[in-house]
Design goal:
Layout (H helix, E strand, L loop, with lengths): L8 H15 L28 H7 L3 E4 L4 H5 L4 E3 H6 L5 E2 L4 E6 L16 E2 L2 E6 L4 E9 L6 E8 L5 H21 L3 E8 L12 H5 L11 E8 L2 H10 L13 H10 L1 H4 L6 E8 L42 H11 L1 E8 L3 H10 L4 E5 L6 H13 L2 E5 L5 E8 L6 E2 L3 E2 L7 E10 L7 E8 L6 E7 L21 E4 L2 E4 L3 E2 L5 E2 L5 H8 L17 E4 L2 E4 L1 E2 L4 E4 L5 E2 L5 E2 L2 E2 L6 E6 L4 E6 L3 E2 L5 E2 L17 E4 L2 E4 L18 H13 L5 H5 L3 E5 L11 E5 L10 E8 L5 E6 L20 E2 L4 H46 L26
Parallel strand pairs: 6-20, 8-9, 8-11, 11-12, 12-13, 38-41, 39-42
Antiparallel strand pairs: 1-2, 1-3, 4-6, 5-7, 7-18, 9-10, 14-17, 14-19, 15-16, 15-18, 19-20, 21-22, 23-24, 25-26, 27-28, 28-29, 30-31, 32-33, 34-35, 36-37, 39-40, 40-41
Length: 830
């Protein structure tokens, strides 16, 4: 993506948060974001847009500057944050405001209040003007009106197994009408029945069976509307009583979904009122056929969701031509007509209907007695469930994202909730609704509705998505500003004619792609010119050459043939580019095509963090890192156990004996360090016959270096610091083999003596410890073996003693059986 500067994601996120906070208001215009401090003006997401249309669709924070010459003269991008454009004093800013307008907002009211009908949803009509990716907030209030009209249609399974239920319904018809009258004064009742499709294998298609499938049974049918909705309750009882017999089908499932579809979509035949609560009571003692089952009878055409009832007879005339409806199709039609079903089914079959309830919005299910004796109470209970719950839905399009927060009576707001429960008639709940236009649609004006399930009222919302700029309508063709009329001046910039390109159409090409492509290719750093970004994404290719962007107000410079370098991307040392101006500067390495550090004299490294001087590594004794480390970048890397800036600190050493030892042995024995380093030693050695007593000095004693004595001897010294800073060491050379070395100044009460054990002594000590451990192990094994031997010997002796004293008795084995048997013939000799 071509951009002028680096992205500053953290600051951009902060500005987005400010914008979101400023838009969170209900039923009012979205306000402009507050101005930003000029020091925060950075490149941002708006930089990607190249036209005004793209700009306002890119992000709600983006605005377009239509000032002529704005981008060409200032090198600022036209599409920028609104606050940036304000701070840069752009005069012609295109920044569409998002507006929420309420067109109709009749107050909520019950039925019979005033000349108007009951109002259960407010407001009724709203217009939204939104920018893409911007959110508008509004509030929808819902109150279920008291005494609201109710249309109740009773549809019943009249297969043979429901014969006793039909008889019970005849006795309950009057009671049902009375109970509905207690709920509302304005109600109507209707009645219908269903059996099955009249094709094999669903029914017996023999001619006689089609007329009378069982003795005394009615001919099978799919669905029949016996009584359209009517406020005459006596007529309801009469029509139910007129049904003499049930019918019969060949399988268990019924055509219940066919019946529900016809009841829903046949508005005129059923008689649904526009302003009423539409309830369907569905009773059955068996399951139902689903979409696809019709193929068993050769019916392959999907259900068309249209009304096919004969206006004279009330029968479904197209049942054998269309398959059963699917759950989704039935739910769509019921939601469209605001129909809510109550499923009253027997206990054995209720498991089939629970999944159906999950698919159909607002529906409920109850357990029906075997003879339907509890149907009246079941209708009352489920009607209360319906009226105690409010759930809102919408039919918004794909490019609109709608979210909800419910405010149910005294409960706390619940985000992502569209349901309120536990309500009574007359109680008001509200829902906070957020509508976001996620993209620009083909048609800038769209409509959708928000409504409670089962209500015939809704909030009608018209959304206008601002995807075009007003300045585009006043474009000037062949403008002189566009280099001799070679382009159209639109929204402050040139749209070049074919064969021309550049900010002011100042560059030409022989065709639309050829020369222009070659010129752009020369602005790409890669050999494979189609794989790299033009001018590294930090400049503009003008007639084949890169013109790099600069931020003079922040002293940021982009350079290089392909704008591949800058003065702010080099490595840092101590949080500063190239270690700061005293160490180096960030320059462009055209061979490597990247920004690198050019170090000043005395410094090296990728970030000029390494000083060439070694002065900081010289110890107080004059040695480099005290002879106990290496000097790297003017810092000592010490050997263990030495520490400190010059490796002079040794927490496990006594005094400074070890610090002065290298210089002493260098000067006296010419060992350990090079002669050049030996000359740097700030230590003077005085050979003494006896060591003097010096306060603050330890007695230092070390073995004589190998090759300088015929036996294992040691040398001793003490030290003091002279007024000129020189360390004076008083040393006594070792005596003859077997003699003691001088120890003047230490007669038992003197300072602590530091001794370094020789390698041979340490080896003897290690061997001795190993031998002792081995001997202890051998002795323990021998003792263990002896103890085991004595224990086994005692046990064997006890065993032999018990064996000799054992006395074995003679007795008959109870399980022994002899090998011969004797039988006596009782009649022998008679």
């Amino acid at each position: 993506m071509d951009g002028r500067y680096r992205y500053r994601h953290l600051r951009w996120a902060t500005m987005v948060l400010i914008s979101l906070l400023s838009t969170m208001c209900s039923v009012q215009a979205v306000t402009e974001p507050p101005p930003i401090d000029p020091q925060d003006l950075e490149d941002n997401i708006c930089s990607a847009a190249r036209t005004c249309r793209e700009c306002i669709a890119l992000d709600p924070m983006c605005g377009w500057c239509g000032d002529q010459g704005y981008a060409e003269e200032t090198n600022f991008q036209r599409c920028d944050l609104h606050a940036n454009l304000m701070n840069r004093t752009c005069q012609d800013i295109t920044f569409p405001d998002s507006v929420v307008g309420v067109i109709q907002n009749d107050p909520l009211s019950d039925a019979g209040e005033g000349p108007m009908e009951a109002v259960q949803v407010a407001p009724q009509r709203i217009t939204l003007k939104l920018r893409p990716k911007e959110t508008a907030n509004l509030t929808v209030s819902v109150r279920q009106a008291r005494d609201y009209p109710v249309d109740l249609y009773y549809v019943m399974d009249l297969s043979k197994s429901m014969g006793d239920d039909l008889n019970r319904l005849k006795t309950l018809a009057t009671t049902l009408a009375q109970e509905i009258g207690n709920i509302t004064r304005n109600f109507r009742l209707g009645f219908g029945s269903f059996v099955e499709k009249t094709v094999a294998p669903f029914v017996d298609t023999a001619i006689g069976s089609l007329r009378e499938p069982c003795p005394g049974c009615e001919a099978p049918y799919n669905f029949r509307n016996h009584l359209p909705l009517d406020n005459n309750t006596d007529l309801f009882s009469q029509r139910v009583s007129e049904i003499k017999n049930v019918s019969k089908n060949a399988d268990h499932p019924e055509a219940g979904l066919d019946a529900l579809m016809q009841v829903t979509v046949c508005k005129d035949q059923i008689g649904w009122l526009p302003r009423a609560r539409h309830i369907v009571v569905y009773t059955s003692d068996d399951s139902f056929h689903i979409a696809g089952d019709g193929k068993l009878g050769g019916i392959v055409q999907p259900n068309d969701g249209k009304c096919h009832l004969d206006p004279d007879t009330g029968f479904n005339t197209k049942a054998d031509e269309y398959d059963y409806p699917s759950f989704g199709h039935l739910n769509f039609r019921m939601r469209e007509q605001n129909v809510i079903p109550i499923f009253a089914v027997t206990y054995e079959r209720i498991g089939f209907y629970h999944p159906l309830v999950r698919f159909i919005e607002g529906s409920t299910v109850g357990t029906l007695a075997q003879d339907s004796s509890n149907v009246v109470q079941l209708i009352k209970d489920n009607y209360e469930k319906i009226t105690s719950r409010v759930e809102i839905v919408d039919n918004s399009l794909e490019n609109l994202a709608v979210s909800y927060t419910s405010r149910c009576l005294d409960e706390a707001p619940r985000p992502n909730s569209k349901v309120c429960t536990g309500l009574r008639l007359g109680e008001t709940v509200s829902f906070d609704v957020s509508v976001e236009a996620t993209s620009c649609p083909d048609n800038n004006t769209q409509k959708f509705s928000i409504r409670p399930i089962g209500f015939d009222e809704a909030v009608e919302i018209t959304v206008e998505v601002a995807c075009e700029c007003e300045c585009e309508a006043s474009a000037v063709p062949n403008s002189e500003y566009c280099t001799n009329g070679n382009g159209t001046l639109s929204c402050g910039q040139c749209a070049c004619d074919p064969g021309r390109y550049g900010k002011q159409c100042e560059c030409s090409s022989t065709d639309d792609a050829g020369d222009k492509y070659e010129n752009i290719a020369s602005c790409r750093a890669s050999i494979n010119s189609t794989s790299s970004v033009v001018c590294s994404g930090r400049g503009e290719c003008i007639c084949g050459e890169c013109v790099c962007f600069e931020r003079q107000d922040r002293n940021e410079i982009v350079s290089g043939r392909y704008c591949e370098c800058d003065n702010f991307s080099c490595e840092r040392y101590d949080s500063e580019l190239c270690g700061g101006p005293n160490r180096g500067e960030c320059v462009c390495d055209e061979k490597k095509r990247r920004s690198t550090c050019k170090c000043r004299p005395g410094y090296v490294g990728n970030a000029c963090g390494c000083a060439t001087s070694m002065a900081a590594c010289i110890a107080t004794n004059g040695l480099m890192c005290n002879g106990r480390g290496r000097c790297i970048c003017n810092k000592c890397t010490c050997e263990s156990p030495f520490q400190g800036e010059t490796c002079e600190v040794c927490k496990t050493c006594i005094g400074k004996c070890s610090s002065y030892r290298p210089c002493v042995e260098c000067q006296v024995y010419s060992v350990d360090i090079s002669p050049a380093d030996c000359n740097k030693c700030n230590v003077a050695v005085a050979i003494e016959t006896d060591l003097p007593t010096i306060n603050g000095s330890s007695l230092c004693e070390f073995p004589v270096p190998e090759g300088h004595s015929n036996c294992s001897q040691t040398y001793s010294f003490v030290y003091e610091t002279l007024s000129n800073g020189t360390i004076l060491v008083h040393l006594v050379e070792p005596g003859e083999c077997g003699g003691d070395s001088g120890s003047g100044g230490n007669d038992g009460d003197g300072p602590v003596v530091e001794k370094d054990a020789s390698g041979s002594e340490i080896l003897i000590l290690i061997i001795s410890i190993v031998v002792v451990i081995v001997l202890i192990g051998v002795v323990l094994l021998a003792l263990l073996k002896a103890a085991t031997f004595l224990h086994d010997r005692r046990e064997f002796a006890r065993f032999e003693k018990e064996q000799k004293s054992a006395v074995w008795g003679q007795a008959q084995n109870p399980i022994y059986k002899p090998s011969t048997s004797t039988y006596i013939n009782p009649i022998f000799g008679k």
